[in-house]
Amino acid sequence: MRYSLKQLAVFEAVAHTGSVSLAADKLSLTQSATSMSLAQLEKMLGRPLFERQGKRMALTHWGMWLRPKAKKLLQDAQQIELGFVEQHLISGEIGLCASQTPAEHLVPELISTIDNDFPEIRINLEVKSTDGVIESVLNYKNDLGIIEGRCDDTRIHQETWCRDHLTVVVSAHHPFARRDTVSLAQLEQAKWVLRELGSGTRKIFDSSIHRLIADLDVWREYEHVPVLRSMVANGPYLTCLPYLDVEKHIESGSLVALNVPELKMERTLSFIWRADMADNPLATCIKREGLRMMKGKPSVF
């Protein structure tokens, strides 16, 4: 075998950062040593792994084919090294990317569970929209994702973690707050503030509401849930958010959940990972502990 783990580590670092100089910093190598390792790997494999696109190093077709296989070899090497040094079979570092609702309400408990039972696992967490989570997994930036709703990309494997539902809310002072039920005609006339396009919440809401109402009066779209909650609590707007995001505010009386009989907005929260990636023991551990954490909790939040 003519290539080395060091050369594969250089290849992965350049693929991750898109830059030889940034890869050198990441690996604590000189830029010349990094360039030399990459050039040697390409020469031994007989194929170009990168092409320059401006200042960025972009993977070629051969580089994209190699990357999941190189990552698997590097993960196995890390497990061997840490397993012997720390005497822990489950140890190492993993990138986890989660959408807002699970990141705020479920992931902290999951990470605490992992920290308690598997202290040698280091979890690097990012929070993005559902589309952003999928993109980060597809681009190898993160090993495991947690999304709201479904992903139909065949390059992604998906496993349901739990279920939640969306609810339409208004302020306690809104005229709709005093109604036992709210009609579709009233929703159509209301002013709405919603999550941004690309978020899991918005996808579920749009797919549910547009079967019933052709056009909504959407005044604002924001990424951050606290902004939407505050606007609704202090203004004449309606919004639709996961129940987990508004539960405490409904209980305190600052928001009121509307009863719209025609709207049923349950969805799944799921783990996702690349279909072409070999089994990752750290990702498997996180998924297993996540499912165990949900035992005894409501089947739908």
Automatic annotation (TrEMBL):
Sections of the chain in a coiled coil: none
Domain HTH lysR-type: 1-60
Keywords tagged on the record: DNA-binding, Transcription, Transcription regulation
Keyword Transit peptide: no
Record's protein name: LysR substrate-binding domain-containing protein
Organism: Vibrio algarum
Similarity comment: family membership: Belongs to the LysR transcriptional regulatory family.
Pfam annotation, one family: LysR_substrate
Lineage of the species this protein comes from: Bacteria, Pseudomonadati, Pseudomonadota, Gammaproteobacteria, Vibrionales
